Inverse folding.
């Protein structure tokens, strides 16, 4: 049996608030293989970003992380902060949504690119600077020798995001976590960045965990998709399967509610209601109060995540596609 | 977690009973209260302030002696005997006079800050909302007032108008308002770009309504915090003026006035000047702690 | 929509009555608003004396018209001036030049009372569901204030009108006494819509109304806007950066780039046969939610230039894959190569103008 690059087993991240304990991530299990791009999709508050922070070991107090995060043979939850620092930015790196807030405004792009190289790879100042220029060229920044000495505010939004990606890639990480990398960008710039990420993935054979709310980005980029809802994984499948034969009513609803560019439709499909308050989630299946197919069974017990087709798992008593399995 | 307040199931009304609605409508206040309760220094400040307010209100009933009854034979009795905090040069009970003075000192503090805030808020609102030339003129005026040392201005006014607590209030009100004006103006400048203010303009509301109904309530938290901390300033300033003989009259026996009378006996009868001074210090401390606590609780950044 | 229709006869009510008689409330074809050569320049101040050293041309010579009952979409990337156009029309920012005729009257030359009337006719919905509501006002207070200020109802009528509005936007009575922070993003957007509807406007400027919302909520709001339009015969100016959303809701679409209108046409025509190279690039750049969709991508190089220093000639020529020598020299004028399809591009010179009956209210 092959080992996965990253494997989460029953990852649970809780925050205690004055009103009670909020389970932002609730027994999430999934894996990412070498050279694979996996999309993690869901609406705000579904726990997708907290999942990535948990992997990076960046969940701040009063958050508590339980379960197992197996990365490259090590359980990240067992590592000390010191060991974790060696992994962060070196073996796993991250790109954020807002490039402007993720880049430090008082250092030049070059300084910020050199830092991880010198820290993790022990390069000399000159070597690191040289590598920084190379990586800026790699991410398609024109005249990198000049740009490397500039400050973040001197670059446009698209350029900043490119610089962020360069920074994330300098140490040649095994896993790149991209948290809504194109949400803040314009369409034409988004297209550039997505192309760039596809190219780089081929060149550097990095695995990518793509966190996004945008199903279209998932369709373009990913091989496999994990759909999250209210802290839970509700469906996971190869990308074509998700779009052709979505198993969970939530996934189906999400896909149907996007306005289609190439079809004409009078009314959009609506998922009724809103994401439940994590302190007050419905009993049974978390989606039952918004689901048009919910029965008493869904309101009583929560279904398990079961395989309905090869590589296609659904957390639903009545999957919309695939064979119904005895729960 | 602020997000926990945001979600509520619609559009299925029956899910949420009416009582829950009413309860939830106060959740911001509940939240603020809960945060306040968790802040021991703020509670401590509040207790001090309440104590002194009670002294101010019920002072006459609480004084063990008549604060004005002179008895030269009793002059400068040390604290601890019949007179808990001793007596002054005229044999008047220091404790009674401090209790009596609380009312006037707090009255000065509260009324000066109220006047300062009223002027400052109007100037700041108008300057911030209209911008341009109006703002430039108003804010230069504010700068001029800030540049001029407030206590000197107050002394000059007192010298012209003579002693008396009304004149103290008048004189001190001149000094602090520019700070309020600056504070409010910067809040207004950021608030007027908010979409709800633009929506109010789009709805055709007149400027005064937008300023006082839609912008002012949203900078109230800042104003309250600053005003609470600001109450200490006029109390100190009044004590200073009275100490210099430019403040209260003898019937108005404020803490500063008491200190100014007793300062010459400081070597022989330290209590006459120390205890009123301590009273000033404790009140100022109380208001500052309370203000700090309120800032933690009401800070607009924490509620959104 | 009004349970006690007999008791209450606001304009709203009588208007809906009329619509029941008229089965086609959509686009009557009459021009409700005509924007011509609208310009909005923001001065850039510099130096010690804060002298004006230049201008940001947020909106530069934009013309279009909106027909009664239709939805005109305005798309473009950030900084293209679409939002400024909306706010200028709403008179939330002053204009620099040009005019906007609403029912034939220039809105920049209205008297105070005419302005108040204009406010009742044209309303706006904002993008940010968190910043667009006064945190210190309950929903009921907010609507009461508007109704009493404009004297639209009094006494019991106020409450009735509020309940009616809440029902129209899909909220219930028990939401009336609540503060904005108690609502989710989608619900706040509904409240924003209720506020806009409160004055019975004929036209609503929708400024990115769904871009801050989750996908499942976005479709709820888009459907609501469509329903309200059908019910009340509203005219929308729908501003957004998301092309699929604009395509879904609009009858006609205008594409803006760097303060200028690049192309304007009926939605289907524009999406099937985009003429301007920028529109073509924009359309091919949208990711499609279909893993089998493999369109050839014309990925645009570079970034949008700064509007404070726009390129000479055609503002798009620095990124245009079909740039010609003339493009860096002359600003292209709006031509009409196909009926009702307007484009500002040198690829479609005026001589090849479509010889049909040109619509008089275009250039």
């Amino acid at each position: 049996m092959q080992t996965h690059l990253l494997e989460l087993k029953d990852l649970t991240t809780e925050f205690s608030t004055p009103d009670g304990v909020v389970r932002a991530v609730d027994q999430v299990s999934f894996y990412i293989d070498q050279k694979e791009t996996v999309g993690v999709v869901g609406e705000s508050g579904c726990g997708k970003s907290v999942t990535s922070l948990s992997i990076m070991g960046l969940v701040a107090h009063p958050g508590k992380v339980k379960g197992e995060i197996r990365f490259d043979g090590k359980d990240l939850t067992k590592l000390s902060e010191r060991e974790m620092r060696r992994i962060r930015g070196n073996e796993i790196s991250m790109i954020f949504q807002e490039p402007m807030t993720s880049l430090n405004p008082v250092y030049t792009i070059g300084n910020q690119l050199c830092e991880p190289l010198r820290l993790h790879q022990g390069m000399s100042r000159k070597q690191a600077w040289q590598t920084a220029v190379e990586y800026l060229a790699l991410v398609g920044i024109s005249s990198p020798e000049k740009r490397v000495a500039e400050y973040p505010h001197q670059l446009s939004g698209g350029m900043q995001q490119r610089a962020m990606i360069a920074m994330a890639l300098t140490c040649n990480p095994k896993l790149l976590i991209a948290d809504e990398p194109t949400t803040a960008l314009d369409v034409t710039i988004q297209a550039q960045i997505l192309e760039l990420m596809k190219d780089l993935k081929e060149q550097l054979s990095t695995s990518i965990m793509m966190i996004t709310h945008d199903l279209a980005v998932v369709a373009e980029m990913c091989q496999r998709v994990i759909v999250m809802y209210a802290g839970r994984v509700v469906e996971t499948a190869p990308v074509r399967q998700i779009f052709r034969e979505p198993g969970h009513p939530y996934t189906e609803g999400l896909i149907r509610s996007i306005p289609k560019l190439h079809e004409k439709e009078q009314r959009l499909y609506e998922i009724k209601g809103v994401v439940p308050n994590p302190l007050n989630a419905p009993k049974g299946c978390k989606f039952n109060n918004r689901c048009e197919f919910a029965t008493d069974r869904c309101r009583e017990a929560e279904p398990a995540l079961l395989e309905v087709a090869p590589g296609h798992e659904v957390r639903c008593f009545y999957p919309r596609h695939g064979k119904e399995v005895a729960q | 977690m602020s997000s926990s307040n945001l979600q509520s199931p619609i559009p299925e009304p029956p899910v949420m009973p009416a009582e829950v609605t009413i309860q939830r409508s106060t959740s911001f206040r509940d939240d603020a209260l809960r945060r306040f309760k968790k802040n021991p220094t703020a509670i401590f400040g509040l207790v001090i302030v309440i104590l002194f307010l009670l002294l101010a209100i019920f002072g006459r009933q609480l004084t063990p002696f008549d604060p004005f009854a002179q008895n030269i034979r009793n002059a400068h009795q040390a604290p601890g005997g019949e007179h808990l905090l001793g007596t002054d040069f005229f044999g008047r009970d220091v404790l009674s006079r401090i209790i009596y003075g609380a009312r006037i000192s707090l009255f000065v503090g509260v009324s000066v800050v109220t006047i300062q805030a009223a002027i400052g808020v109007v100037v700041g609102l108008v300057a911030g909302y209209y911008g341009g030339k109006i703002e430039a003129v108003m804010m230069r005026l504010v700068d001029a007032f800030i540049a001029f040392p407030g206590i000197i201005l107050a002394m000059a006014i007192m010298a012209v108008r003579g002693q008396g607590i009304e004149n103290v209030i008048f004189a001190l009100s001149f000094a602090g308002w520019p700070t309020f004006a600056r504070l409010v103006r910067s809040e207004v400048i950021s608030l007027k770009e908010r979409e709800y203010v633009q929506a109010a303009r789009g709805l055709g509301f007149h400027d005064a309504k937008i300023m006082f109904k839609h912008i002012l309530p949203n900078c109230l938290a800042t104003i309250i915090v600053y005003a609470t901390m600001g109450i200490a300033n006029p109390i100190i300033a009044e004590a200073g003026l009275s100490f210099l003989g430019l403040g209260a009259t003898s019937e108005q026996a404020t803490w500063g006035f008491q200190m100014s009378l007793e300062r010459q006996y400081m070597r022989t009868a330290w209590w006459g000047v120390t205890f009123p001074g301590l009273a000033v210090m404790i009140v100022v401390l109380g208001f500052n702690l309370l203000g700090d606590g309120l800032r933690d609780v009401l800070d607009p950044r924490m509620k959104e | 929509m009004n349970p006690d229709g007999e008791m209450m006869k606001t304009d709203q009510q009588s208007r809906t009555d009329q619509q029941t008689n008229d089965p086609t409330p959509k686009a009557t074809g009459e021009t409700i608003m005509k924007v011509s050569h609208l310009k909005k320049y923001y001065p850039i101040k510099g130096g010690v004396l804060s002298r004006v050293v230049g201008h940001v041309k947020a909106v530069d010579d934009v013309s279009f018209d909106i027909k009664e009952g239709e939805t005109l979409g305005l798309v473009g990337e950030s900084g293209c001036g679409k939002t400024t156009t909306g706010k200028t029309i709403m008179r939330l920012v002053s204009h620099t030049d040009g005019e906007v005729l609403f029912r034939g009257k220039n809105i920049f030359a209205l008297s105070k009372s005419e302005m108040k009337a204009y406010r009742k006719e044209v309303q706006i919905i904002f993008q940010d569901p968190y910043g667009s509501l006064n945190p210190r006002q309950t929903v009921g207070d907010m609507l009461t204030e508007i109704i009493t200020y404009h004297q639209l109802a009094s006494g019991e009528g106020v409450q009735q009108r509020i309940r009616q509005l809440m029902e129209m936007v899909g909220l219930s009575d028990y939401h009336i006494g609540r503060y904005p922070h108690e609502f989710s993003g989608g619900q706040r957007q509904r409240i924003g819509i209720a506020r806009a509807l409160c004055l019975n406007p004929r036209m609503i400027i929708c400024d990115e109304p769904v871009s801050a919302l989750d996908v499942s909520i976005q479709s709820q709001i888009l459907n609501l806007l469509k329903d309200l339009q059908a019910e009340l015969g509203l005219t929308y100016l729908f501003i957004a950066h998301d092309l699929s959303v604009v395509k879904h809701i609009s009858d006609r679409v205008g594409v803006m780039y760097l303060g200028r209108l690049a192309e304007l046409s009926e939605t289907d025509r524009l999406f099937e046969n985009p003429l301007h190279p920028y529109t073509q690039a924009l359309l091919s750049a949208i990711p499609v939610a279909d893993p089998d969709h493999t369109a050839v991508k014309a990925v645009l190089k570079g970034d949008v230039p700064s509007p404070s220093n726009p390129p000479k000639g055609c503002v798009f020529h620095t990124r245009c894959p079909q740039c010609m020598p003339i493009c860096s020299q002359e600003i292209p004028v709006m031509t009409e190569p196909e009926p009702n399809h307007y484009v500002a591009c040198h690829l479609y010179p005026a001589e090849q103008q479509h010889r049909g009956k040109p619509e008089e209210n275009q250039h």
Summary: The mean pLDDT of chain A is 88.
